[in-house]
Amino acid sequence: MFAWFSEFRHKMFADRPLTRMEAIMPNVCADFEAELIELNSENNHMHLLVNYPPKVAVTRLVNSLKGVPSHRLRQEFPDLVRHYYRANKLWSGSYFTGPVGSTPLSVVKQDMQQQNRPG
């Protein structure tokens, strides 16, 4: 499970950019032979449940999951530029990653789905 916030937790995403980001994420995962199992995005943060092979470095995967959508959104939604801080950063440099362990995936997915999405 991965999670990260926008720079300064600024609420920046409306439905169109969020929908576009959600469409990009599975392709980024596929580049790493990983599977995006669940994604919950809100206007200032992301939660992702990803199944990835042990040969994949978590830092590389997370950097791509943060960087590729950020780059594409910057191109496709120029009005988001006002939300990019410090060297055009969309996301905070930090992130959370944690194992799911023995928790059934259905429970993790249900928990992620219960997060609020902006309307």
From TrEMBL:
Gene: tnpA
The protein's name in its UniProt record: IS200/IS605 family transposase
Organism: Micromonospora maritima
UniProt xrefs under InterPro entries: Transposase_17, Transposase_17_sf
Domain Transposase IS200-like residue range list: 5-115
SUPFAM superfamilies, A to Z: Transposase IS200-like
Gene3D superfamilies: Transposase IS200-like
